[in-house]
Amino acid sequence: MRFTGLRLIAVAGALAACAGSLAAAAPAAGQPSVDLGVRLNQVQVIGTHNSYHRELTWAEKVEQTKTDQNAWNLWYSHASLPVQFASESVRQIELDVMPDSDAGGLYTHPLVRTDAGLGPLTDPDMAKPGIKIMHWADHDYNNSCATLVKCLSQTKGWSDAHPGHVPIVVLIELKQTDPAMEARGGPKSPPWDTKRFADLDSEIRSVIPTNQLITPDTIRRPGLTLEQSVLRYGWPTLAQSRGKFLFLMDNKDPQQQAPYLDGRPSLQGRVLFTDSAPGRADAAFLEQNDPTGPNTAHIQDWVRRGYFVRTRADEPFDAASTGSTARLQAALASGAQVVSTDFPIAGLSARYGSDYVAPLPGRVPARCDPVSAPRFCAYQPLDLAG
Q1: Mean pLDDT for the chain?
Q2: What is the mean pLDDT of residues 261-273?
Q3: What are the DSSP E strand ranges found in the chain?
Q4: Where are the transmembrane segments (predicted)?
Q5: pTM for the complete prediction?
C-alpha cells in the first residue's frame, strides 16, 4: 500500500495526538500509572515469617534452653514493621495472634521470665483487653508490637504515607497456649470460637477501613461461590488494589476454621481468606509451604488457575546454614504470589554461619509473577511506594 503525502500527514497527526493523549494520561511522580489490567494475583512479593519477632534477654534465653534444646533458633529479631516495608522491600507480614481474656492481662507473667527471676512484662498493652501478638506463650513472647491493633496501626501508618504500594498481605496465624506450659502453671488461652473470631474481624476493621480491605466479599459474584468467582472472574486489578490490605488465615485445620466458616461457606462478611483446598466454596487462597520437587509444578498449576498462593523460601533453615538458594529459587519459580522468608536482608543468617538472604530479583518490593503475569505486566509500574 502506498501513502500519499496527505495520508502521511494524517497518520503523523494521529500518532502525535495519540502520543499527546498518553503523555496527558501519564502519572505524576509517585502516582499510580494508567491501569493496564495487571491483577493483584499476577504480582509476586517477598514476605517475612514471624514478622513481629524479637529475641529475649540473655537471662530469659538461659531459662529457655533448660526446657528447649533448640531454643537458639528463637534468638533472632526482625526490624519493626514500618522499617521492613521501607528498607527491606517486604510486602507481606505474618502475625501470630493469641486470644486474651475479656479483662486482658492473661499473658503478663510468662513462665520463662518468672524462672529467670524477672517481674511481669512491663508493656502496658499486655495488661489491656484485646488480641495479643506472640510466638509461643510463656516461652517466646517478645515482639515489636504487643497487640494486633498496634501492629496494624503501625502498618496502616506506613501505608497511609505511601499509598502507591502493592497490597500488603497480612498472614494471620491462630495460636493458643501450649498444654505443657499450662501443666507447669501457665495460663490457658480461650478457644478460637465464634466470639473470638468476631473479635478478630472487629479488631482488624477498627484499624483498617472497609475501603482499604480486599475481602472475600470484594471477590465473590452474585449466585457464585468464592471459588467460582475467583476462577471465573479473577482478582481485582493492581490499580484497584494499591494502598490496600489482604488478610489470610495461616491455619489449615478444618476444625479450627469451622467457627469462622459456620453459616458463611464462601466467607460472607468475613475479613480473612481461609487456607483452603480446590473444590471448596471458600477456595481462593491456598498454601504449600514446601515449593521443592513436584510441589513446584503443583503450585504453578494453582497459580495459573487463578488461586492466590503462599510458600516459604527457607523452612527448615537448611538454606541459611548452607547458603544454598535452591529452595528460594524453587519458591520464586513456583509463581506463588507470596514467598515468605526469615532472611529478607543480609546479616540475619549470620547466626547460622552464612550470608544467605532471600530477596526478589533486583531487591524490589514486587515483580511480575513469573507464572501468571501477562506480557504487558512488564510495562506496568508495580509498587509506587516511593
Answers
A1: 91
A2: 98
A3: 43-48, 92-98, 132-133, 168-174, 213-214, 245-249, 285-287, 308-312, 338-341, 366-368
A4: none
A5: 0.91
Relative to beta strand 366-368, strand 43-48 is: antiparallel
User: Has residue 19 got a pLDDT over 60?
Assistant: no
What distance in Å separates the CA atoms of residue 62 and residue 58, rounded to the nearest whole number?
A: 6
Burial class (CB in 10 A: 0-12, 13-18, 19+), 298: middle
- Give me the helix-helix angle, 294-305 and 326-334, nearest 10°: 20
pLDDT tens sequence across 304-330: 999 999 999 998 887 888 899 999 999
Q: Is 380 helix (H, G, I), strand (E, B) or coil?
A: coil
Helices and strands counted in the chain (H then E): 14, 10
241 pLDDT more than 90: yes
Residue 245 DSSP class: E
Pair type for strands 366-368 and 338-341: unpaired
pLDDT in tens, 366-376: 999 999 999 99
Q: Provide the grid cell at 3.
A: 501513502
E-assigned strand segments in 237-337: 245-249, 285-287, 308-312
The tally of CA atoms less than 13 A away on the side-chain side of residue 190 is 20
Residue with cell 517466646: 140
Residues 6+ apart with CB under 8 A from 213: 204, 205, 244, 245, 247, 271
Strand duo 366-368 + 92-98: pairing: unpaired
Concatenated DSSP letters for 195-217?
Answer: HHHHHHHHHHHHHS-GGGEE-HH
Task: Give residues with Cβ within 8 angstroms of 310, minimum separation 6.
Answer: 47, 92, 169, 171, 248, 285, 286, 287, 288, 289, 336, 337, 338, 339, 340
In the predicted model, is pLDDT for residue 29 greater than 90?
Answer: no
Q: Which residue has 509463581 as its cell numbers?
A: 335
Average pLDDT (152-173) is: 97
Which grid cell is 32? 499510580
Q: pLDDT tens for residues 66-89?
A: 999 999 999 999 999 999 999 999
**pLDDT in the model for residue 320:** 81
